[in-house]
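Assemble and predict.
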Amino acid sequence: AQSVTQLGSHVSVSEGALVLLRCNYSSSVPPYLFWYVQYPNQGLQLLLKYTSAATLVKGINGFEAEFKKSETSFHLTKPSAHMSDAAEYFCAVSGNNNDMRFGAGTRLTVKP
Amino acid sequence: DSGVTQTPKHLITATGQRVTLRCSPRSGDLSVYWYQQSLDQGLQFLIQYYNGEERAKGNILERFSAQQFPDLHSELNLSSLELGDSALYFCASSVGYREPAETQYFGPGTRLLVL
């Protein structure tokens, strides 16, 4: 069965610093992977998704993620954090029925 | 704005009661998904409908049921409510269901508080 694990429930960075949010997946078939962001009191917004077309996926708001099969990872990065990036980030994998299986989430705090 | 609407935004009720949450998918989307987000369980898939038919079930309790109507809006019914049902309930929609990488667009959620 497909699943994802997010390493670190809380990440804190300074404004302008690199953002790295970690996600590892488990899947017996080639996975379809997603990163979603949830701002306070809002729904989830898709940042990017991996569909096997390219291992480096670029998303919105300057985020990107790299699919590494050898490491079963799909980490999310952004070169320079902005205050507006403070939110909860969820990694997800598409299940057999197209249901999303989410990780526990990582709360990103950006310090001025 | 994802184009998915959910009502009500907030709901406060008592244990043992029954509530109905409503979701309208994006225009043109035929699939509707329901998710529950709680502090202890995280984000969990409950159930999916496609063009009026149930397609997949996740961790949905027997006290919960859903349906999708001919106009494609969906309702999630929660009955015999318990304190532990307090959570944020999200609806999402997508065009179809056959493509595993189909993007799901999430509504703003309904926050349910059971007292």
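Chain B touches chain A at residues 2, 4, 31, 33, 35, 42-45, 48, 55-56, 58, 90, 92, 94, 97-109 (CB under 8 Å).
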